[in-house]
Amino acid sequence: MLTKRTLLALVMSLAAAPAFAQTAASTNPFVKMHTPQGDIVLELYADKAPITVRNFLHYVDTRKLDGATFYRSSTPPGDKTFTYGILQGGAGTDPKKLYPPIAHESTAKTGLSHTDGTISMTRYAPGTATANFSICVGDQTYLDADPKDPKANPGYAAFGRVVEGMEVVKTLLAAPRDPVKGVGVMKGEMLAHPVPILTVRRTTAPAPAAAPAVAPAPAAPAPGAPQ
Predict the structure, then answer these.
(1) What is the mean pLDDT of residues 90-118?
(2) How far apart are CA 85 and CA 198, in angstroms?
(3) How far apart (Å, rounded) are the C-alpha atoms in residues 98 and 90?
(4) Do residues 70 and 57 make contact, with C-beta atoms less than 8 angstroms apart?
(5) Helix (H, G, I), strand (E, B) or coil at 214
């Protein structure tokens, strides 16, 4: 039978576990996008999508994304809540701003998924991605590759997630659109005033969230007291 002292030690060790877990530092790179509406901080999964992350950091380090824009907001037809959709941005199609396209890293290979806050490369055919990307608001797992047949449905290349600034992403998703701009499925989804990405720089990992407060444990009984 456990004594109160043994139980106290067990409770204290369990209470400390979440705090310890939150201090574990990620070895993945982080970048900060600075916009007029606020900053968006991303963790890039270099461990899972090395080709895509290397390409993105190449644009970051050579400052090719400075002056890029968020230019497209896609949400379900008639939706006015702006709690679900895709915010698209990047350096556009000017060949002077672009490096050669990269190989496609399928989610079937990386194990990533287009869940809330995921950043992913936009493209035409697989292997054409360059410097344009999208950020998911809400889970968009239909963008994942079909794990049973990734050749038939290669999906898109997820490569990171928003760790700070999702409120900025949602603000931009709700920005006014031009009803006539855009072609095909993108018609009516182009922002009336594209939002500039002023700078994109490497940054440090955000500070871990504070551990939840733990109620003080009762004092240990005095020697000889009933257990």
Answers:
(1) 96
(2) 23
(3) 10
(4) no
(5) coil
**Structure confidence at residue 202 as a pLDDT band (50, 70, 90):** very high
End-to-end CA distance of the chain: give it in Å, rounded: 10
- Tokens standing for 103? 């190989």
Binning pLDDT at 50, 70 and 90, where does residue 7 land? very low
pLDDT for 26 = 74
Q: What DSSP line would sit under 154-223, residue for residue? A: ----EEEEEEE-HHHHHHHHTS-B-SS-SSGGGTT-EEEEEEEE-EEEEEPPPPPPPPPP-PPPPPPPPT
Is pLDDT at 63 greater than 80 in this prediction? yes
Enter the pTM of the model.
0.81
Query: How many residues in total does the chain contain?
Result: 227
Identify the burial level of 118 via C-beta atoms within 10 angstroms of its C-beta, where 0-12 means exposed, 13-18 middle and 19 or more buried.
buried
Q: Which two tokens stand for residue 72?
A: 């497209």
